[in-house]
Amino acid sequence: MPGWLVALAAFGYLATLFAVAAYGDRRARVVPAGSPRPLIYGFSLAVYCTSWTFFGSIGLAANNGFEFFAIYLGPILVFTLGYPLVRRVVQLSKSERITSIADFLGARYGKSLHVAALAACIAVIGTVPYIALQLKAVSNAVTLMVSHYDGSNGYPSTLPLDVSLVVAISLFAFSTLFGTRHADATEHQDGLITAIAVESVVKLLVFVGVGLAILFFFFDGIGPVRQAFSDNAAVARSLANGTSGETWLVMTLLSACAILMLPRQFHVTVVEHRSDVELRRATWLFPVYLIAINLLVMPIAVSGLINLDSDVPADMYLLALPLAADQDWLALITFIGGLSAATAMVIVASVALAIMVSNDLVLPALLWRFNATARTAAGDWSRIILNIRRIAMALIILAAFAYYRQTDHAAQLASIGLLSLAAIAQFAPAFLIGLIWRGANARGAFLGMLGGFLVWAYTLLVPNLAGADAAIVRDGLFGITMLRPSQLFGVQFEPLVHGVFWSLAVNIALLVGGSLSRTPTPLERIQAVTFVPREAQQTIGLKRFRTTTTIDELKDAIARYVSTARMERAFEAFELREGRKLIGSDTTDISVVRYAEQVLASAIGSSSARLVLSLLFEKDGASSRETVRLLDDASEALQQNRDLLHKALDQMDQGISVFNNEYRLTNWNGQFRRLLGLPPEMGNFGMPLKSITGMLIEAGQIDAETEREVVENVTRFRRAWQLALERSGRILEIRSNPMPDRGLVITYTDITGRVEADEALKRTKESLEMRVRARTAELTSVNEELAVAQRSAEEANIGKTRFLAAAGHDISQPLNAARLYTSSLVERMGGQGDSTNREIAHKIDTALESVEHIIGAVLDISRLDAGALTPNPTRFPLADLLEQVQSDFALMAKEKGLDLTVVRTSAIIETDRNLLRRLLQNLVSNAIKYTHEGRVLIGVRRRNHDAVIGVYDTGIGIAPDKATRVFEEFQRLSDGARIASGLGLGLSIVDRISRVLSLEVTLESIPGAGTAFKVCVPVVDAATPVATVKPAPAQARRALLTGLTIACIDNEETILSGMSVLLTGWGATVIAAPRRDMLATALNDHGADPHVIIADYHLDDGTGMEVIADMRARYGDSIAAVLITADRSGELREQTSAADVHLLNKPLKPAALRAMLTQVPMPRVAAE
Asked: Count of domains in the chain?
């Protein structure tokens, strides 16, 4: 690739930047002024990444491992953890119209010309090596490329033209064209900043893109690079040359200072800042940019170490690697990226330095030298200012070129960059201490920066310029070894750490000592109040102090430096803000003078602006110095009075604010802001009342309606009204009173505690009634919930009952049929047939009977749990019930050889007879089951108004620790399980029936000796009529049913067939049918009237009760009726009892059926 093509590409890229800058300027004319541009702002901050980053970081990594990253760690920490500091510096600079870092320092220390001038000198001297670094980087890059294509084996080759000079001239042209368009240094250089942002994007894309190409597509890919980290000697040496802890700390400190104090960084960060949106975006965008551009630095350095010759400078690895891979166009792109990084820095740095040189060095000198002419001369000074800046740019770039030509060409880019950062770090003590210590003054700042700068020059700059072999470097000043630049006073550190340590130590010591050596001047104290924050800072109001200079004279003086149009716009904004018209013939008051000073400072800096005004006020033989001192003394006197008043007001618990006749804030104390929850920016002098109430609306403290009430109440001086702040919950008592100048003073008292106490007292008085209402409501709610729960439970029980009834019916039907067949089979076989068959038939019948008991027990438990059994209490003799129980179990006891004894009683009790009978049946059944020998006794004892029924046995007994378990479902004790079968449901049914009847059941037992169960039943008066159960006539009893005609109806054919077989076996005549109409037909065909009707309850064409009613209507009411059903509900029992119908539950017990049928009267025909 020919050299002219490289030059053409460079000039083409610069031409593109010209076009971008021109576009940015054109766009600024159509976009509203002050519009935020967060992306452009964020990327413009990356001007920090110069050719040092693009080329030098790789060289530093190749020689010292990861040391390079310390230069970027500081900025990352400042823009993340130090964001409040950055925001505060920006806000201060905007409020004071500060144009540069030198202007910032001068403004802080009483707008001192000396401090600003010294800062400008240090900035220029410290930045010149940095600019030279860019020239060196670009020159080396061009030299390397041309040498490569010319076939020169050495590096560098000799070129007929000085590349660095051409680059310097080109950068000067760009800087002067787009960096000196406005005399007002605070006006935004839109075209320039847009070009800088584009350059930042270009160098990031080129660096990352070229780095990825080198690592993954050339030199056998990433594999050798990864392997080199572990087994390459050169790489191992690089990593072993790790930076010491103190060097890391110093480099991080220098970079943290540089990101705010480098002239170019202060310019893009502060001067070009427009809104908080930009700064908030930059807090993450800028750190991400720094991390992204440094990710590939170390891998690229390793690739250069293993793939390039040792005579190739490490700073040029990024360019040399594509050349070594014969990737000409990639090398050209790399060169463009490096050029972009260098040009961005040189352009912005030269602009920022030119502003400092013109504002803080040249203009003050001109004004002092030609003060009389400057005070009276007419004309536009803005062009003079611009020309001064252009000349300054030329001289600065020329000085950088001279420095580059003078210094060692073999020096690394990083060493030159660190030298500049160490110089700029001399601003740090005055910069940072000035933001936290009001006692720091101009003398201390000047001495500190001067002393630190001289030490920097001696320990770092002199060795760099003179070389290591110079006598002063080798032997020390005047041959004194203790004064050697690299080992001052015998202290041995690395050169950079050594120089930074001594320079900053001297700087801080002189700053503190110089500040303590004299008291601050009035203006220094005023500026200290502005720069060092305090609670509720207030602006000094000096409207009554007037000068002899008229408004027109002041305007003319300002127009010379900022142009007439700019001046007119500024004073129109002042009139709008203050709400008053400025008359040209009126003399100026201090508020106008201070505003004019800020406008002038935006063009020529705060120190020069103060000098211009001091010359303007010099009249009647009074010197400007005396005039300015008079103003400063007056300002300080008022400031002291305000400080005293402010301290007194701050001691009050009440908040106080004073508004003028235009309802603008003029005085306040700290409690005013704290009580209303106002942020610091809402406590500024001149803040309108509407702005404060508007902020309260935005914060959610009040609404729009409340705002109108607030304004109306305070302006009409309503006394003692309350304001409730919704978000904070605070309640304020507000009083407003008129001021003599038609303003108003407002006091704010926090009465939250008092109001809460009043409300608590009121609540205490009303607590009883509220508690009653609350308890009543709670009880009502609970009752409603209980009612709902009860209804739900009842519905669930009804559903469960229905399910059980249906399930019981479905289960009982086939079981009932089987039971009928087996009973019939057993009776028919009698003593006939094979004994084995008889035994089998008997066992089947017994098994079915057991199943009946089990199913009956489970259904009983389910119905008891569901509450489907409702007690039907009646009065009856207890003796009758006990006789029935004895009759039920006499045979069972006899079969086991036990004596079942019932003791007679005359007690009459009131309870549900059937349920009590079932309870006693279960107790007696258990007693017989678990008794081997002896007896079972059923007796009754009187206890007060109760009869205690006891069931005693001499069985195996129950252990005391298992006495409660026996009442649980399916719980059988091991001893009992061995001697008797069962499911363990009997006592569970007893427990449930006792709860249904509200009877107490107790258990007493001795293991091996027997058990006693006792049931306590209430006794009623014996004189009360008692319903008795009349036994059936004896003549109705008989063993066989010969001559009895029985009509049977059941929709289940198997049950109907089994019933027919069973009844026929007992001697009865059976007429059976599955439906009502078929039964009627069969009876008609038979010709005889039935004596008994046996009906299933659930039929296909109705119910058994309906069939019984039809039969009785047809054959007479005397016909006996039996209803067979699985429904055990109390309603059906009552219905059958009322209709004189016998009720038998499924599964049907043949014995119970036969016993019932034997009670039916003999037919008359048979009797005759």
From this structure: 5
Claim to verify: residue 117 and residue 165 sit in the same structural domain:
yes
Residue 656 in tokens: 């106080």
Same domain, 250 and 356: yes
The answer to whether 189 touches 179, Cβ cutoff 8 Å, is yes
Quickly state the pLDDT bin for 540 (edges 50, 70, 90). Answer: very low
Whether residue 358 lies inside any domain: the answer is: yes
- Mean pLDDT in residue range 1047-1063: 85
153 and 188, same domain (yes or no): yes
Q: What is the CATH number of the domain that holds 704?
A: 3.30.450.20
Helix and strand numbers (H, E) in the chain are 48, 21
1045-1049 and 1069-1073 strand pairing: parallel
> How confident is the model at residue 291, as a pLDDT?
92
- Let me know: does 485 contact 463? Beta carbons within 8 Å: yes
**What are the pLDDT digits (tens) for 430-472?**
999 999 988 899 999 999 999 999 999 888 888 877 666 777 7
Q: 26 vs 436, which has greater pLDDT? A: 436
Whole-number Å distance between alpha carbons of 546 and 586: 10
Tokens of 758: 């009043």
> How far, in Å, CA of 571 to CA of 580, rounded?
11
Cβ within 8 Å of residue 170, ≥6 positions away: 10, 11, 14
The candidate with the shortest Cα–Cα distance to 670, out of 690, 645, 687, is 645
| 8 A C-beta contact, residue 235 and residue 228 | yes
| Residue 263, both tokens | 């002239």
pTM recorded for the entire structure = 0.53
Using one digit for the tens of pLDDT, what is the confidence trace for 4-13? 677 777 778 7
CA 1118 to CA 1161: how far, in whole Å?
10
Asked whether residue 983 falls in the same domain as residue 1046, the answer is no
Alpha carbons 614 and 623: distance in angstroms, whole number? 9
Q: For residue 786, is pLDDT > 80?
A: yes
Residues 290 and 394 in one domain: yes
Q: What does DSSP say about strands 946-953 and 1010-1018: parallel, antiparallel, or unpaired?
A: antiparallel
Whole-number Å distance between alpha carbons of 642 and 634 = 12
Task: For residues 418 and 548, state if they share a domain.
Answer: no
Phi-psi region at 509: left, alpha or beta (left = phi > 0; alpha = psi -120 to 50): alpha
Task: Using DSSP bridges, classify how beta strands 1092-1096 and 1045-1049 pair: parallel, antiparallel or unpaired.
Answer: parallel
- Please name the amino acid found at residue 240: A
Tens-place pLDDT, residues 679-733: 765 556 667 788 788 888 887 888 888 888 888 888 877 777 888 888 888 888 8
Q: Tell which of 991, 1018, 1045 closes a domain.
A: 1018
CATH, residue 907: 3.30.565.10
Q: What is the pLDDT of residue 628?
A: 52
In which domain, by residue range, is 941 found?
869-1018
**Digit-coded pLDDT (tens) for 566-596:** 677 777 777 776 667 777 677 777 677 777 7
- For residue 1018, give Cα distances in angstroms to 445, 945, 947, 1029: 109, 6, 6, 20
Tokens of 250: 């110093």
Three-state DSSP at 1146 gives coil
Whether residue 594 sits in one domain with residue 692: no
Rounded mean pLDDT of 365-382? 58
Same-domain status, 599 and 560:
yes
H-run or E-run covering 779: helix 752-829
- What does the pLDDT read at residue 723? 84
Domain boundary among 990, 1018, 1046: 1018
Percent of the chain with pLDDT over 90: 10
512 within domain boundaries:
no
Classify burial at 158, counting beta carbons within 10 Å of its beta carbon; exposed 0-12, middle 13-18, buried 19 or more: exposed
